[in-house]
Structure formats: C-alpha cells, structure tokens
Task: structure prediction
Amino acid sequence: MEHTVEEYMELGKEFLNKSIDHLQHQLVKIRTGKASTSLFDDLLVEYYGTPTPLSQVANLTVSDSKTIIIQPWEKSMLAPIEHAIFSANLGLTPQNDGEIIRITIPALTEDRRKSLVKQAKAEGEEAKISIRNARHKLMDFLKKEVKNGYPEDLAKRKEKEVEELIKSYYDKVDHLLEVKEKEIMTV
Result:
C-alpha cells in the first residue's frame, strides 16, 4: 500500500510541475516592451495548406531591444507570415521589404503596463487553481487509502508533506509573478 501512495505523490508532483511550466509559458507570451522571438512561439503560418509553426518556415532574430527580424526561407512565405501576424492580433505591425519582415515593438504606456500586470496575475491565479486541484486530489486519495487500511499516522505525515509541497509551489508562482511584474513595470 505504501508503494501506491508514493506513486500517487509522484504523479501529484508531476502535475504540479506541469502547472508551473504552463504558467512560465503563458508569462513568456506577455509582451514587456522588449523584443523577444518567444512572442511567436505559438504562431501558425499557412505553409502549402498546412498550419505550420513560424519557426519552421523562417529564421527569427532580435536585431536590437525593439526590433525582431523574420527572414522566411522562401520569399513566397512573406505574405502568409504577414497575414498570420495580423490575424494573431498581437498588436504588432509587420514591415515587409520584399526580403525580410521587420517588427518594431512599440513602447508600452503606463495603462498598458498595468493591464499586462493584471493579465499576468490572472495567469498566476489559474496556476494556483490548478495547484489547489492537485492538493484536493492528493488529500482525497490519502483519505480513501486510510479507509482501505493505510495507517492513519502515516497518512497524517503524508498530508503534512502535501501541505508543504503545495506551499512551495504557491511560493514558486508568487516568485514568477513578482519577476514578471517587475519586468513589465520597468521602463
């Protein structure tokens, strides 16, 4: 019986790590006024009728802190890339010179910065909800195992272990949000 509890604890940790990874992925997408190719990680471009990630049809580079250069491997891809950027509604205007696409990241206004911080906090709250759900599943599993004959004193120790684990993941979320807020609010 001890073995199944340990396995379930490991599954819980995996789920918690996925929650943190998802939060990090979502926070990377929030624009901070600095050029970053990660803005286009999820952007799909029509490539011969198939939605394809932008990174598979073009080379993305950051030329300075405000400019991203997209150089397609085929010139015929310039228009589909531009269309995909407009369709993604990123608030960015691509400039096509026939060879490459330049994207200048506009400076953020104070209101926009505050709005982005709210967005980041909303993502953090989603991560905390996910962590809470994992906690409930772990606690319910432990209670069920006690009913099935698992020693109560060991279950209490495991519950304490779960609480400490959950607190550490809450702290990770808070730290990620603090770093992102500082990054967004820095002019």
Summary: The two ends are 56 Å apart (CA to CA). The mean pLDDT is 89. Residues 2-29+109-185 form a domain with the Topoisomerase I; Chain A, domain 4 fold (CATH 1.10.132.20).
